[in-house]
Amino acid sequence: MTKSILVTNDDGIHSPGLHALADALRPLGEVTVVAPDREKSAASHALTLRRPVALRRLDPGIYTVDGTPADCVYLGALRVLERKPDLVASGINRGGNIGDDVTYSGTVAAALEGTILGIPSIAISQMALTTHERGSHDAVRFSWDTSGRVAGRIASQVFTHGLPDDILLNVNVPADPVVGVRCTRQGKHLYDQVVHEAVDPRGRITYWVGSGEATVMEQSEDTDYTSVRNGYVSVTPLHLDLTHRRFLERIQQEWEPDLDAEFQTS
Ligand code: MN
To answer: Which residues contact 49 (CB under 8 A, 6 or more apart)?
Structure first.
C-alpha cells in the first residue's frame, strides 16, 4: 500500500523549508501538507482549545490551519486524512533545534504530537548557512537541497526499520558542507540569560525575552550541538516519556516514606 505522509512545520505555509520537505518525501509516498497559516516558531506543544480553528484547502493535498503545529498534526491525522498517516514529518525548520531549544520548538512538538497519536514521526531543522549579522535578518541563508535529501533518507530508514513506541527523531542538518552523520544525545544550551529593556512610545517599559545573540553550549563530543558544529548531520532520538528513571528510584526511597507518612489518612 502507498505510504501516507503528513508534512507540517512551525514556520508556516509560506516557508520554503516546508515545500522542500514535501518535495523530498513525494518519491516515498502520498504527501499531504497541513501547516500553520503563519509563523508559529517557539509555539512548543500548544493546542488551540479556547476558540475554533479553521482548516482551509489551498490546493490538492495542501491545507492551512489558523492554529499551532500540534493543531495541524491533530487535524491532519484525524480529519484531513482518511486513515492515520504512516509518517509525520515536521520541518524543514529555518534554524536548528538543538539542546534545550527542543522544549520550545514547534517543529519538534509537531513530531511529538504525531508520536502521541501513535504515528512514527521525525523533525528536521536546517542550521543557518551564514552567521547572523546583527540588525540584518536577511543575512541568514538556508540551503534546502541537502536537508531535503537527509529528510528523504531518514524517512526511508523509518519505513524500513520502524520506530519504537513513544520515540521520535530530531534531525539537525549543519550549514554546508555536510561531512557525515552522527547519532547524538540532546545537548545543553547555556543561555546568556539577557533581558533587553526598552521604553515604548507611551513611556511603558517593555522587555524582549531571549537575546537572540550567540549562546554558549555545553562542550561534549556526543551532543547534537557538537555534531552540527563539526559538519555532521545530527540524529537524536527523543523520548515522549519525560520521567527520569534513576531519580525516580531515588526519591521513592528517600523522599516518599516521609511525605507519604505525613499525608496518609488511614
Ligand atoms: Mn521555526
So the answer is: none
Inter-residue contact 152 to 27 (CB < 8 Å): yes
How far is the centre of ligand 1, averaged over its atoms, from the C-alpha of 40 (Å)? Answer: 7
pTM above 0.85?
A: yes
Q: Where are the beta strands (DSSP E) in the chain?
A: 4-8, 30-36, 55-59, 62-65, 87-94, 121-126, 167-173, 180-183, 189-190, 195-199, 205-209, 216-217, 232-239
What is the distance in A from the centroid of ligand 1 to the CA of 263?
A: 45
> d(Cα 252, Cα 244) in Å, to the nearest integer?
12
d(CA 229, CA 5): 30
**Residue 133 scores a pLDDT above 80:** no
Cα of 206 from ligand 1 centre, angstroms = 24
Range scoring the smallest mean pLDDT among 125-139, 152-166, 231-245: 125-139
| Distance from residue 245's CA to the centre of ligand 1 (Å) | 31
Of the given ranges (66-75, 189-198, 208-217, 237-246), which has the lowest mean pLDDT? Answer: 208-217
> For residue 196, what are the contacts with CB-CB under 8 A and spacing of at least 6?
207, 208, 211
7: CA distance to ligand 1 center in Å? Answer: 14
The distance between the two most distant Cα atoms of the chain, rounded to a whole number of Å, is: 66
Residue labelled with grid coordinates 493546542: 47
- Say how many Å lie between the CA of residue 4 and the centre of ligand 1: 24
Give me 165's grid cell: 513506541
Mean pLDDT for the stretch of residues 252-257: 97
